[in-house]
Amino acid sequence: MTTVRLPLFPLNSVLFPGLVLPLNVFEERYRAMMRDLLKTPEEEPRRFAVVAIRDGHEVAPSAPGMPDPTAQPDRGPAAGFGPDPLKSFHRVGCVADAATIRERANGTFEVLATGTTRVRLLSVDASGPFLTAELEELPEEQGDEAGALAEGVLRAFRQYQKRLAGARERSLSTGVDLPDEPSVVSYLVAAAMMHDTPTKQRLLQAPDTASRLRDELKLLRSETAIIRNLPSLPSAELTRSPTSLN
After folding, report:
1. In degrees to the nearest 10, what's the CA dihedral of 163, 169, 170, 175?
2. Which residues contact 137 (CB under 8 A, 6 or more apart)?
3. How many C-beta neighbours within 10 Å does residue 77 have?
4. CB atoms within 10 A of CB 34
5. pLDDT (tens digit, 9 = 90+) per residue, 149-179?
6. Which residues are in coiled coils (predicted)?
7. Per residue in 7-20, pLDDT tens?
């Protein structure tokens, strides 16, 4: 088994291969991570791993907490993730390649990264200024009938988009070519659907592309049927809640 050790960036969201990840980095532990990544030559990939948080806080408390206002907040690379950070994270994540790491005058960072490959989290090391993890790369197997399933998912996804645009009283962008490679379709649709983190995590860690597409087809059909009834609700309620693609 080939493993790799990379900096670890836990988030309250799921990153999929091929998807762009913008980050506003302001906590010291992650600023230290970005400073370390900047030491990597520009011609080499500046990689870190993103995992979704199962139990914990993306941003560590920076002020005294409740109910005891004198209690000091957690400090250090594992702050907010308990005594064993490994238990706080979902075990399947995604490697991110940082194309842009720009330091602002106040010491924070603006980062633009892209998901590349899925990885399994084997261990977490909190001994340094930021978390690092030992990771095992997960191959993407196609599975049976992935091509036909991708076509079905794309058709269902277009219907989902139309229904969602109508329910949210927004126009639907047209003329955008969607991919036809099954694994790319599966990740794009997984990221674009409006679902909670556990559902997106389930899609990320699907055993193969075909399994992910089958799950997405069921979700899309179910969601489209639900959205079909939304216009009967008051329009103010439909436009009040924000939309998130990740």
Report:
1. 40
2. 2, 4, 95, 117, 118, 119, 120
3. 24
4. 23
5. 999 999 999 988 887 776 554 444 444 567 7
6. none
7. 999 999 999 999 99
